[in-house]
Amino acid sequence: MADTTKTPLPVGAGYGVVIGVGFFFAFLMMFISYLQNRYTQYSTHQSEEFNTASRSVKPGLIASGIVSAWTWAATLLQSSTVAYQYGVAGPFWYAAGATVQILMFSILACKVKQNAPRCHTYLEIIKARYGTLAHLVFMLFAFVTNILVGSQLLLGGSAVVTSLTGMPVYAAIFLIPVGVCAYVILGGLRATFLCDYSHTLILMIIILYFMFNAYAVSPLIGSPNEMYNLLQKAGTQRPIAGNKDGSYVTLKSNFGLIFGVIQLCSGSGTVFLDQAYWQRAIASKPSTAVRAYLLGGLAWFAIPFGFSTTLGLAAAALTDNPRFPTYPEVPTSGQISSGLAAAFAAETLMGQGGAVALLIVLFMAVTSCASAELIAVSSLLTFDVYKAYIQPKATPKQLIFVSHIMICVFGLTMSVFACIWNAASIDLGWLFLVMGLLVGGAVFPTAFAITWRKQSKAGAIAGCLSGLAAGITAWLTTAKHYYGEITVETTGLSYPTLAGNLASIMTGLVVTTTITFIRPDNFDWEVTRAINAVATEGTTPIDTSTSELSDAGEKNEITAISAPTVAVSTPQTDLPAHLAPTTQEEDDPNTLRRAFKLACISAFVLTFILDFLLPMPMFFSGYIFSKGFFTGWVVVSFIWVFASSAISCLLPVWETRGGLVRLFKKMTKDLGRKK
Ligand SMILES: NC(N)=O
């Protein structure tokens, strides 16, 4: 842990940001919820609105929500750690290794719209398809995923808050979620989207501030040329093991590549098994879910790539500068693994201003992701535990009440687990590399549950459990084999975590497909399409064979509204009106089929480009960047961050311009009447 006597900011700054900014957003949310309830048709007092944002959110805001949910503390801190450890390969593999899952998720987002358009959670699909035992097994993996993600957010966030301000780490761990719980309770899922938006906006501005400072302004670096020179020098003084000639400016980095593979496996678990991503698919307008995920994935890439190509590399470049916090020593491996490379760089480059900017950007990342996790877990606990097993006939009021309670329960749970990791000397780096092997077994069984009608129940359950067993076995035996003992240190190293992650995800895949091929299922998707459906006598389901539309967007809404064959009109006794789906939730099957094709082609092509076509030739040729190539690399990171800002900050405003104008008119009319 950092020396608290030398912190760049006073302890009050830590409390100020953690409590002050948290409650600022809570009050902002209170105001937004008031406007929403008063001037729009969406009420935060309705369970459906609270948990699914009435399934009406447009792709720009969903993309912004995806960017924000996938931007963890680790996205900023761990990416800078691997930049410090592996040079330019670190930021590249961090970003490329965790973008593809979001792109791939576009396929699941489309399938969930096709095969379970009215579900609240993905576990409802598992229960409807495979029954209670599978529901409980998958629920275990879902909760483990959310607990790991939630607690590592607080672990990484609190380590940096403590290092920058000296705030006691346990105080940070418990106080960070308080404001977030408050604003999520006040606003529900739509609130998290709006706060996600504002957080992403601030995040992008601060990332650009760091980038411009490091590459254009700072007297310590000030240009890609100088960064290149400093990195070349660092490569001769502290050569990187496993990198071509020990260089910082090459993608021929053996441990960087190993990290990339771990990132691919671990990211698959933490996206596919996290209700937060399903929730964004569920909340989006059916016809645009795919677009939202593709945009969100591409926009997210820029965050770790731009941030750590700046601060992670700056930390490596400036380690020998007298302004570097650990000078004349180099940082310890424990400090780097705790995620402090970015903090050291920000402080060296910009002094207190850098520390404040980092504190804010980190707080934005932690809280926006925490809000997504809170509402995601609250939905699972409400619909998959309370409604499924405790109170099947729960009223909307009860559902909302339970959702609120569960947000607090999970907020506390995240904090308790973060304390446990901290007390056990487990840091962000360790948790980041180990997470995937604990949940990876369930990745393919979960993806197949919504995409493959043949996957059998036995295959699904056996895939999850055997993946878990194989992952843990491979992890621990590799640690013992290579390092002779099983300790926190040896189990957090590259080879054991690589073995564990690969074993877990691949065993899950092989076991579920093998068992399925032996005795395939022939599942009828009508079962999952009927989840939460309210079939009213005398009505017919929407015709799935007609309607030719060329536009996936607005035209579809028009068709949906005017569809003559409406599946729902009157609620059944056990489902309140607002829990019943509306015709707008349905989408034209042809449009969805086209969206599915787009998702598959885009996801596979982009994955191929990002993870093979771009890096592999540079890896196998052992190319060390020239100065010109490095400058181009940095320029690309700038362009990507600008493009990402346009997607996640400008697009949502552009899409809702009509609604914003209407809201403004209603407000001014209202104010005029009151005068
Ligand atoms: N969300 C991640 N993997 O940074």
Automatic annotation (TrEMBL):
Domain of life per record: Eukaryota
Keywords assigned: Membrane, Transmembrane, Transmembrane helix, Transport
Name assigned to this protein: Sodium:solute symporter family-domain-containing protein
Pfam families: SSF
GO cellular component terms listed in the entry, alphabetical order: plasma membrane
Main location: membrane
GO molecular function: spermidine transmembrane transporter activity; urea transmembrane transporter activity
Protein family according to the UniProt entry: Belongs to the sodium:solute symporter (SSF) (TC 2.A.21) family.
Annotated compartments: Membrane
Membrane topology listed for this record: Multi-pass membrane protein
PANTHER family membership: PTHR46154, SOLUTE SYMPORTER FAMILY TRANSPORTER (AFU_ORTHOLOGUE AFUA_6G03200)
Transmembrane segments: 12-35, 56-73, 93-112, 133-155, 167-189, 201-221, 255-273, 293-318, 355-378, 399-424, 430-452, 459-478, 498-518, 598-624, 630-654
Gene3D superfamilies associated with the record: Sodium/glucose cotransporter
